[in-house]
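Obj: model holo form, ligand = FE2/S2 (inorganic) cluster.
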Amino acid sequence: MAEFEPRIVGFCCHFCAYSAADLAGSMRLQYSPDIRIVEMPCSGTIDHQVILQAFEDGADGVFVAGCLEGDCHFMKGNYRAKKRAHQVKKLLEEIGFESERLEFYNLSAADGPRFAKIANEMSHRIRKLGPSPFNTNVKVEDNVTSTIVQQNPS
Ligand code: FES
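Output (holo structure tokens):
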């Protein structure tokens, strides 16, 4: 039987988490290839539907990463994102879905090593949990990307 290869979607704010991921790459830090990064203008643009849709589209784990508290370029976007992520975690618990599959992080653009650590921790956590019960062998890259494009036309 083939080894489980988790599909983890990381919704990353352009100004911090995405930059931190970029920095991790520039620093040649090794982190899990299980992570698919979706760049967002601000973590505050995430909503419940986008997170749930990512799971429905085949993600085994999802994380949302915004700027450090007080550092959001859009004032309170990261506070909103954190609140929404926690609301979705509660909802997942209520329906008997492992809420550990979803996490929220605050980090700065200089946190390249921490981004790599987060990516590896999420990968380790999801590998322990196994495939998402929602996973129906749908290709996450295609569906998540098309969902995001539909919801955030630029
Ligand atoms: S700009 Fe980074 S969380 Fe809002």
